[in-house]
Structures are given as C-alpha cells and as structure tokens.
Design brief:
Strand content: under 5%
Distance between the termini: 47 Å
Shape: globular
Number of helices: 10
Radius of gyration: 16 Å
Largest sheet: none
Number of strands: 0
Helix content: over 70%
Length: 197
Amino acid sequence: MYIILFIIIAYLLGSIPSALIVGKISKNIDIREHGSGNLGATNAFRVLGTKAGIIVTLSDILKGTLATVLPLLASFYIDVDISSLFVGLFAVLGHTYPVFARFKGGKAAATSAGVILGVSPLMFVIIVLVFITILYLSKYVSLSSMLTGIIASIVSYLVSDRFLFFVILALTIFICIRHKDNIKRIINKTEPKITWL
C-alpha cells in the first residue's frame, strides 16, 4: 500500500512542469511554444534567461531529491521497506512524461541528478563538477549531460554499491536515449552552443 503511495507521490512531484510555471510567471509565455519546445532547463536558459534557467534547474533537481527522500521522511512515522532510489526513479519518469503537461517533459538530466543527491550528496558534488567542467570545455549542454552520466556510472562502479551503479547506469542510458536528436545535431555540427559560460 505504502509503496504505491510513494510511487504516485514521486511521479506527481516529477510531473510538476517547472519550466512551464517559471515561463508563465516570468514572461507570461508557454515555453513549449519557444526554442526547442522542451520543458527542460536548457530550453529555459535559452528562452527565459539565466536567472529563470537557474530557478528551473534547481526546481527540477529538487523534485528528484524530494521524491527520493520520501521513504526516509516517512520512516519516522511508519515502517518503510522500499528503496529510496527506486522511488526516485518515478520522479524522473514524471519529469520526462508529466501528467500536468500532456506527458511531454524534459530530458531527465536535472531530476536524475536530484535523485543522486537524495542518496549520495558526495556523488552529486562529483556529478556537478564533472558537468560544469565538460560544459565549460564543450559548450554543449546535451553532450555534458550524457558524458557526465557515463563518468558517474564509472565512478559509482568503482567506489559505491552496485545498486547505485545500476541505477546511475540506467538513468544514463535513458538520458542518452532522450538526447538522440541532440546526438545527431552534434555529429552534424548544428547543435546550439551556450554563450553564458
């Protein structure tokens, strides 16, 4: 019973369309009608600006973190026997296929990072540092997201428990699949580069 409740709450948390809400509040626009049309942080930076992009990024990360710590918070009141990582995955699904935005959401990177933050703050710090470094060198957000996932998978395999490794690997594969169009544009050298870093 509690497992189903956790899954539903995590999915609904992930489904909160941060970019859509921030776009409406900051510029009174539907971000889905601008830029790439994506409800992720990258499009928010591109369409809404740096400040709004940061807010969307932090919001998307927080969704994953809150969903992941749900079992921990509930354990103070009830007997909980469910993996926090497992629950967090449903926030990623909610972000990617949000019920509040016609099931067309972001590409899972920020919310996936939030899930990692919920179970391993140290791994999250590593992910952020790797992402910023690759982004600074490449100027491609999509490439940085995918390479960060790959590096995080390797690091988690070497220094962490196997379940965390498999979760990060699964999230990385999912993120890469979600970025398949970006991969084609990178190969064709038509992928937009950031200009703010």
